[in-house]
Amino acid sequence: MSAPAHRTITIECLRYHPATDSRPRQQSYEVPFTDDMSVLQGLQHVKDHIDGSLTFRWSCRMAICGSCGMMLNGQPVLACETFLRDLYPGPVRVEPLSHFPIIRDLVIDQTDFLRKLESIKPYLMPAEDRPVASGTFLQTPEQMDEYYQFSQCINCLLCYAACPEYGLNPAFTGPAALALLQRYNADSRDAGTAERMPIVNAEDGAWGCTLVGYCSVVCPKAVDPARAVNVNKINSTRDYFRHLLMPR
Amino acid sequence: MKADPVKAGAGVKTYVRPMGSWWLRNPFYRWYMLRELSCAFITAYALILLRGLMSLTEGREAFDAWRGSLGSPWAVGFHVIALLMVTYHAWTWFKVMPKTLPFVSIAGRRLSDRTIIALGLAAACAASILVFLAVFLNAPQAPP
């Protein structure tokens, strides 16, 4: 830290220890901070100097790893790119990401999302295998534009914490998984659309979305998952009529 | 709050937070719920209009009675609220419109969401003005 801390702010943190707590509880910490300190650094100050038992995920500290997503004053954000100076005089209410089961303190259980991510087959499935010697799959800038923004997802899960549909129905495939599904379906090098459409067409797929739209507002990477989900309602309708008119 | 611990993964105990009154937690959700609620007012307005249409088939007296009922303070109050609701609903509808469309490119440049929203709102305004003019310029003069 460069400048000396000259202000303090109260961090009201939701705590939950599975071994001793039957439900979450609140704990407040007085944190001295400088203007260049993020909320993540505030939590690290707590862990290093006040209460070593406070548990949270973090890694890169620069909004690219997607580990430190949490609710700050009720809004899903990355703690590393939110500054304490902007929340002054506080208090800052810190909670784990909404709609996910809490494992401990600010750490949520991502298992459900990881299963969904796996289910959408998040990899290129080319129409035919080509030997490395035949070179790369070429693509025009226009073709790349069709999927590029959806490929920017960092799996931070802020969109799931923003989505009340997911909170009410955890079976909903949800914004990030559907955005990544669109990322591969829209890629000109991919031929796996037919394999992914059953996920889109399901009631808990694109049709589970009522277009609240908050997922796109909170996304730190401008992926616009609401767009990926809702464009797939058109794709799903087209898929339905194609099968109706041309049954295999 | 009711504790609802569930077992997940390899016997890890977790805590699932309840979703009760979720729409009160964030202003964004309240505006969303208002958008959904506005449909009820639009439905009611359409039903009132339909009733008027039906009264046309029942003769002039029935139609005049229906028109007369629209003059009551309750009816005027409802229509003012319904107008505000439909205006808000239209605004939200165009605001999310880009999210329901594939990317639109003109001469190799992608149309921004802002442009699509502006075009939609402009088209809605133009259509409203045309309907307004068509109805009120052709309205028969009230008998003296």
Brief digest:
The complex is a heterodimer of chains A (about 250) and B (about 140). Chain A has helices at about 40-50, 85, 110-120, 140-145, 160, 165-170, 175-185, 195-200, 215-220, 225-245; strands at about 5-15, 25-35, 70, 75-80, 90-95, 100-105, 105-110.
Describe this structure in words.
The complex is a heterodimer of chains A (248) and B (144). Chain A has 248 residues and is α+β, with helices and mostly antiparallel strands. Chain A contains 10 helices and 7 strands. In chain A, strand 3 (69-72) and strand 4 form a beta hairpin. Chain A is elongated. Chain B is mainly alpha-helical. Chain B has a domain at 17-81: 3 helical TM bundles of succinate and fumarate reductases, CATH 1.20.1300. Chain B contains 4 helices and 4 strands, in the order ββαααββα. Chain B has helices spanning 27-57, 60-69, 73-96, 113-137, and strands spanning 5-8, 12-15, 105-106, 109-110. In chain B, the strands form 2 sheets. A two-stranded antiparallel sheet of chain B has the order 1-2. Chain B has a two-stranded antiparallel ribbon with strand order 3-4. In chain B, helix 1 runs antiparallel to helix 2 and helix 3 (73-96) runs antiparallel to helix 4 (113-137). Classes of the chains: A alpha+beta (248), B mainly alpha (144). The interface between A and B is medium-sized, with 35 and 31 residues.
Task: Describe this protein with a few key phrases.
heterodimer, A: 248 residues, Ubiquitin-like (UB roll), 2 domains, 10 helices, B: 144 residues, mainly alpha, 3 helical TM bundles of succinate and fumarate reductases, two-stranded antiparallel ribbon, 4 helices, 62% helix
Helix content of chain B: 55-70%
CATH uppermost class of the largest domain in chain A:
Mainly Alpha
Structural classification of chain B = mainly alpha
Quaternary class: heterodimer
In DSSP terms (H or I, runs of 4 or more residues), the helix count of chain A works out at: 10
**Radius of gyration of chain B (Å):** 24 Å
What is the N-to-C succession of helices and strands of chain A?
A: EEHEEHEEEHHHHHHHH
What Rg of chain A do the Cα atoms give?
A: 21 Å
CATH class of the domain at 17-81 in chain B: Mainly Alpha
Note the run of SSEs of chain B as H and E.
EEHHHEEH
Give the number of DSSP strands of chain B: 4
Largest interface: A-B, 35 and 31 residues
Query: How are the strands of the largest sheet of chain A arranged?
Result: 2-1-5-3-4
Kindly report the spatial arrangement of strands forming the biggest sheet of chain B.
Answer: 1-2
